[in-house]
Amino acid sequence: MKFRTFLICLGLLLVSQHVWASSGGDSTSVPSKFAVEVEKFSTLPPPEPGGILLVGSSIFKRWTNAVSDLAPLPVTNRAFGGSQTSHQLTFFDQVVPPCRPGLIVWYCGSNDIKGKKESASVLQRTDEWLKKVVQSDPSVRVLLVSVIRSPQKRRDGQLEAVDAVNLGYEELSRKKDGVFYVDVNPALQTSEGESKVDLYVEDGLHFNVKGYHQMTTLLKPAIKKYWKKETKL
């Protein structure tokens, strides 16, 4: 009986270690944390094939006016707040293929940086995610959006990591067919490169309505440029 109990405990330990590893080594952000939210996506009406899919973390998740801000572009938002690049990998099959997008707009990596993940690992997981896109449908284009140089990132001394990830995203866009990059930070900073603090809510990380409007001034033209209007059968 004691040996059987030992085997059960050992099995549970191994499972927990696997989940921990799949979450990027962050025990506070295991994939199960997001399972309920992602499951809700399957209950929503599927978008028309060939549209524009927003994926990523809370900057997109909290963008409740995304559809109207980006109108008349056909936009579907499937971001889930708090997610890191590892979680986008974990839930890829539930998020991307059901929407059959023509263009995916990616905003992720900010939470990795906040969690002190190395920029190289952020870029590696993003590259893995891009490979999944190609495997799912090689005709899909991807627009990588720069991580925001927010007041919170400045306070925490993480601008160097933000810039490294953004440089990596730009490099990925140069190396991979169908992958593009847009830097939205110029719309969010002063001419001296300081944050426009009036664009953020109290936490210094997330946008207020004005902030989303500012981001849209650079993001919407990029989406228009890279989205191909076509029907997926």
Question: Any overview of this molecule?
Answer:
The model is unreliable at 1-29 (pLDDT under 50). By secondary structure, the chain is an alpha/beta fold. The protein is globular, with a radius of gyration of 19 Å. α8 runs parallel beside α10. The protein has a five-stranded parallel sheet. The chain is built from eleven helices and five strands, in the order ααβααβααβααβααβα. The protein has a single domain (33-226), classed as 3-Layer(aba) Sandwich (Rossmann fold).
Topology summary:
Layout: H1 2-22, H2 32-41, E1 52-56, H3 58-61, H4 66-69, E2 75-77, H5 85-90, H6 92-95, E3 103-107, H7 110-114, H8 119-136, E4 141-145, H9 151-155, H10 159-175, E5 179-182, H11 209-226
Parallel strand pairs: 1-2, 1-3, 3-4, 4-5
Helix pairs in contact: 8-10
Brief rundown of the structure:
By secondary structure, the chain is an alpha/beta fold. The chain contains eleven helices and five strands, in the order ααβααβααβααβααβα. The chain has a five-stranded parallel β-sheet with strand order 2-1-3-4-5.
